[in-house]
Amino acid sequence: MDTWDAVKAERTDLYELLAGLTPQQWDTQSLCSEWRVRDAVAHLIRGTQVKMGGFMVGMARNGFNFNKSMAKDALAVGSTPIEQVLADFQSIISSQAKFPMATPLNVLTDTVVHQQDVRRPLGMARAVPEEQAIAVADGLKKTGFPFGTKKRIAGLRLTATDADWSTGDGPEVSGSLEALVMAMANRPAALADLKGEGLDTLAARM
């Protein structure tokens, strides 16, 4: 799998969804506690625009709190007219620009997770293409910051029921690969789609 091709495919899929949303749907609360749909999309746009200098300025203004800085930045961009947010997102579909220190896989992970952050509350969830979902899951299981996945899934076995993917040892948590990815990315809403003796432990770590 070419990671940038996968990023483009994810962005294209999301753009097609966004182009048909009503103003009310754009203002729907996403799975990210501080962001509406429009703010989550704004975050994806900003990921292609922020340079190291701007990143450090934003961090300094927010007490070097990464999550706070990202949240405020997305809210500022998301407050612009919907038509502008949509046009700006369309303009970055093929972009290979990335956030300082990010890898192409980081970009893919961010895009996959935030697309589902948008789709799930709108009742428009979908199965992430298997190759992309496996790449994201394999990357997430090793990560600490910012998702905290490595610690969250320690001592558990995660098993996909719709793909040839599993990881870890211990009490099992099983379900669709999409739901596992979202749980690994600290989205409690995905827990309803999972089962197994390790589910309570996973839930307690969110």
Note the overall shape. globular
Question: Counting H and I runs of at least 4 residues, what is the number of helices?
Answer: 11
Radius of gyration (CA) equals 17 Å
Order of helices and strands: HHHHHHHHHEEEHEH
Helix content: 40-55%
> How many β-strands, per DSSP?
4
Alpha-beta content class: mainly alpha
User: Biggest sheet, strands in spatial order?
Assistant: 2-1-3-4
Percentage of β-strand residues: 5-15%
User: What is the arithmetic mean of pLDDT?
Assistant: 90
User: Which spans of ≥5 residues are poorly predicted at pLDDT below 50?
Assistant: none
The biggest beta sheet reads:
4 strands, mixed
Distance between the termini: 31 Å
Walkthrough of the structure:
The chain has 206 residues and is mostly helical. Helices cover 54% and strands 6% of the residues. A four-stranded mixed sheet has the order 2-1-3-4, covered by helices on one side. Strand 1 (157-160) and strand 2 form a beta hairpin. Helix 7 packs across helix 8 (130-140). It is globular and about 50 Å long.
In brief:
The protein is mostly helical. The protein has eleven helices and four strands, in the order H-H-H-H-H-H-H-H-H-E-E-E-H-E-H. Helix 3 (37-46) packs across helix 5 (66-78), helix 7 packs across helix 8 (130-140) and helix 8 packs parallel to helix 10.
How do the helices and strands line up, and which of them pair or pack?
Blueprint lengths: L2 H16 L4 H4 L10 H10 L5 H10 L4 H13 L3 H10 L12 H19 L7 H11 L8 H4 L4 E4 L5 E2 L4 E4 L1 H8 L9 E2 L3 H6 L2
Parallel strand pairs: 1-3
Antiparallel strand pairs: 1-2, 3-4
Helix pairs in contact: 1-7, 3-5, 3-6, 3-7, 7-8, 8-10
